[in-house]
Amino acid sequence: MSAAAAPSPTSVRPTLSELFRAFAVVSVSGFGGALPWARRKIVDQKHWMTAEEFNEAFALSQFLPGPNVVNFSVVFGSRFGGAPGAAVALAGLMGPPLVIVTILAVLYARFGDLEVLSRILAGITAAAVGLLIAVVAKMAAPLFRKRWDWAPLIAIAAFIGVAIMQWPLPLVFLVLAPVSVALAWVTR
Amino acid sequence: MNDSPLVSLFGYFALLSLFAVGGANAAIPELHRIAVEVMQWMTDRQFADSFAIAQVSPGPNIIIVTLIGYHVAGLPGAAVATTAMCGPTCIVAFLVARIWDRFKEARWRIAIQAGLVPVSLGLIGASAFVLARSADHNIYAAIITAVTALVGFATRINPLWIFLVGGLLGLSGWL
User: Fold this and answer.
1) Are B22 and B117 in contact (CB under 8 A)?
2) Rounded to two decimals, what is the model's pTM?
3) How far apart are CA A159 and CA B171, in angstroms?
4) Dihedrals phi, psi of B123, to nearest 5 degrees
5) Which residues in chain A have Cβ-Cβ distances shorter than 8 Å to B45?
6) ipTM score of the complex?
């Protein structure tokens, strides 16, 4: 045991450069969703947040529009460092993936017509769609099990509007979201 | 100047970013509608390829907009598309984060949170539908999708393995 006492979990505050590095590491390790990596880094390794605080911050990020992990980096960064903290966390999260994906974009522009590449990508897409269906099923299971009957109807209406009718998403959202929130308000 | 692709990229993606509740997965159908149908920037297959590349790249899956932007207008397009998709929502996130804790127990906050879940579920379901239509153009691809869905639902396997198997099956020439 060293003489210095370990700080209590919530009192550890990251510096700006620590914030940047943490989110840069999370971004490049986060294949197929950065959430588990972010939790491991922030809660288990760095003790910047308790598990409960993490869940609360992440729930907020999911409810906000736009990419969840991107929102999370802003919510988390601003909590510890205000606007600079948010900017630094966002830069850490987006920087390394942007470099990698830009290289891939250049390669695709050059080799995208290759038969062998398009076969590989077709296989990956088929598999990735399956994973997406699994995500939908996991999300739907608790919703369709509840006694309230409005939530599945809203989900089905959103699906039909966007997938079948191909209406613009903002339009579908502006019609359905207020109805859904009102129903959630009334049934609680 | 209004017909510059950069202006359209920015306008469409910035607007979309404010309505895509459920993240990258919820944004896919609208991205597809804009890029393939309305603006005809890319073919259905190029869109599906971009989705696959974004999936196997490290980092947030929303990075598909960077690929679309690059395809439309090179590096400036990539920068504009990424900024448009992340900028507005980051500002919203920053502002809301400061007041959110104060309304933790408020009934309207709970109603908003509960009300948006089914909407985003429907949008993500629409993503799966739109992508399946471009990806599963034969029975073998459809079988891969079905098996992957079952494996993904029943286990917590690292998606990278699933992508690897999918890519190898594609390479083998089945699809």
Assistant:
1) no
2) 0.90
3) 33
4) -65, -40
5) 118
6) 0.91
| Cβ separation B89–A65 shorter than 8 A | yes
Q: How far is CA A136 from CA B31, B87, B126, in A?
A: 19, 27, 10
Residue with tokens 């699994």: A134
Give the amino acid at B16.
L
The single-letter DSSP state of residue A112 is T
Residue whose C-alpha is closest to residue A146's, from B125, B114, B26, B23: B114
Phi, psi of A160 (to 5 degrees): -65, -45
Task: Tell me which residue has tokens 């790249």.
Answer: B57
Q: pLDDT (tens digit, 9 = 90+) per residue, A80-128? A: 899 999 999 999 999 999 999 999 999 999 999 898 999 999 999 999 9
Q: Which one of A64, A116, A129, A153 would you mutate to disrupt binding with B, by most B Cβ within 10 Å of its Cβ?
A: A129
Residue entry with tokens 């979201």: A177
CB atoms within 10 A of CB B106: 10
Got the DSSP string for chain B? -TT-HHHHHHHHHHHHHTT-BTSHHHHHHHHHIIIIIIS--S-HHHHHHHHHHHHHSSS-GGGHHHHHHHHHHHHHHHHHHHHHHHHHHHHHHHHHHHHHGGGTT-HHHHHHHHHHHHHHHHHHHHHHHHHHHHH--SHHHHHHHHHHHHHHHH----HHHHHHHHHHHHHTT--
Is the separation of the CB atoms in B17 and B53 below 8 Å?
A: no
B95–A contact, CB cutoff 8 A: no
Is A100 near chain B, with CB under 8 Å? Answer: yes
Which structure tokens are listed for B160?
A: 């990278």
Distance CA A107, CA A15 (A): 37
